[in-house]
Design a protein that fits this description.
Belongs to the methyltransferase superfamily. RlmI family. This is Class I SAM-dependent rRNA methyltransferase. Residues 6-72 form the RlmI-like PUA domain. Pfam families: Methyltrans_SAM, PUA_3. The chain has 398 residues and is an alpha/beta fold. The protein has 3 domains: 4-71, Roll (Archaeosine Trna-guanine Transglycosylase, Chain: A, domain 4); 80-176, Transcription Regulator spoIIAA (2-Layer Sandwich), CATH 3.30.750; 183-396, Vaccinia Virus protein VP39 (Rossmann fold, 3-Layer(aba) Sandwich). The chain is built from 10 helices and 19 strands. The protein has helices at 14-17, 80-97, 132-136, 138-149, 209-213, 233-240, 253-265, 279-288, 310-326, 345-358; strands at residues 4-7, 22-24, 43-47, 53-59, 65-71, 102-107, 116-121, 124-129, 153-158, 171-176, 183-187, 190-194, 223-227, 245-250, 272-276, 293-298, 328-338, 361-369, 388-396.
Length: 398
């Protein structure tokens, strides 16, 4: 299908020229190019009001972000050669960074492929197509992945709610190889079994791997509380570093069962206990019981998924950190994260400080972490810088 022109309103190309790749519906000159005449996923050529050619992309007239740029090279329209080039570029970075093939291979906009996520588990690829444009190019993308990576299996993890915003159905589909219920990930000497067709994200949180690795330098003490523990990546790491008691809290019974299997596999089951249910309620109960911990880890899901969620989300971050700090012993360590890109780093730090003041605790921020380098940040696209992880030392005020 030949790309159709998408004409922007006057002076609406500035953000694109600065490097961003999103186009909002109110930036389009709908008199020149009526959006209602375009199909979701249809390829377009983006052109300024003055006739300047800006790039190739795709459109979804039913979405607030109605178009995304893919290529700024007029000689390189999206197609088989384009997909191969982009995937080779992404692979080159990861092979420079990692000895073993376990990482996020494609991180959407940051890798020049908005709407595409690919996680690599050795010879298995877990793929998410989150936009109508990428769904439209599904066959070409899968062919390119097979040519570049030669995987034995590919699962489409299109069960992410963001597809609803694009008018796309959700589901999980194995498009290459036999379905697998288990793959194993090795991280810092620990082995974790995950189900690539189920669970959060594509089964594993590669983005926190670098932050978990740095936990070793601080010392975790004897008692550790891992909140929103999922499969135990943080909690088992703490046990491996010497913690004698690690309590893991998660809302998912299935995740906690998998966590204990991982603990047994790594010879750590004797140090691990679990609590299933609401994290806020369990933290309050532990406070009432007088429990205290040397290290507390808070790695919640995004409390602010959309801008309209901000007031409620800010309150949730403030509350969960206040409850966490109340459970820390003097000189305790708090590892606290936010994966909400609507929450800026400075605001997050201020929320943690407010939580500490509420508890009469003084804190020091020892380190500010972000997602690992397999989730690169595009400097012109702030939405790609979503993960904030603070290492905080807390002690009683005086």
């Amino acid at each position: 299908m030949q790309p159709q022109p998408l004409i922007l309103r006057k002076d609406q190309e500035r953000r694109l020229l600065a490097g961003h790749c999103w186009i909002y519906s109110n930036e389009v000159d709908t008199d020149e190019t009526p959006l209602k005449g375009l199909e979701p996923g249809q390829p377009v050529e983006v052109i300024s009001q003055r006739g300047r050619w800006l790039g190739y992309g795709y459109v979804n007239p039913h979405s607030l972000i109605c178009a995304r740029l893919l290529s700024r090279d007029r000689s390189q329209p999206p197609g088989p050669t384009f997909w191969l080039k982009r995937l080779h570029q992404a692979l080159s970075l990861r092979e420079r960074l990692y000895e073993r093939p376990f990482y996020r291979l494609v991180f959407g906009e940051a890798d020049g492929l908005p709407g595409l996520i690919v996680d690599r588990y050795d010879d298995l690829l877990a793929v998410q197509l989150t936009t109508a444009g990428m769904e439209h190019c599904r066959a070409e993308i899968l062919t390119a992945l097979e040519q570049v990576l030669r995987p034995q299996a590919i699962v489409l993890r299109n069960d992410t709610p963001v597809r609803e915003l694009e008018g796309l159905e959700q589901g999980v589909e194995w498009v290459l190889g036999e379905p697998r219920t288990e793959v194993r990930v090795s991280e810092e000497g620990l082995v974790f079994a995950i189900d690539p067709g189920r669970g959060q994200k594509t089964g594993w949180f590669f983005d926190q791997a670098e932050n978990r690795k740095r936990l070793a330098r601080y010392g975790v003490g004897q008692r550790v509380l891992d909140v929103f523990s999922y499969l135990g990546a943080w909690g088992l790491r703490a046990a491996a570093l010497g913690a004698q008691e690690v309590l893991c809290i998660d809302s998912s019974t299935e995740a906690l069962q998998a966590l204990m299997i991982n603990a047994e596999r790594n010879g750590l089951a004797g140090r691990i206990q679990t609590l299933q249910g609401d994290a806020f309620e369990h933290l309050r109960a532990l406070r009432e019981q007088g429990e205290r911990f040397d290290t507390l880890i808070l790695d919640p899901p995004a409390f602010i998924k959309r801008r309209k969620d901000e007031p409620e989300g800010l309150a949730a971050y403030r509350q969960i950190n206040r409850l966490g700090l109340e459970l820390l012993r003097p000189d305790g360590l708090l590892i606290t994260s936010s994966c909400s890109f609507h929450l800026g780093r400075e605001t997050f730090q201020r929320l943690v400080q407010q939580a500490a003041q509420r508890n009469g605790r003084r804190i020091q921020i020892l380190e500010v972490g972000q997602q690992g380098p397999d989730h690169p940040i595009h400097p012109a696209i702030p939405e790609t810088a979503y993960l904030k992880t603070l290492v905080v030392r807390a002690w009683s005020g005086d």
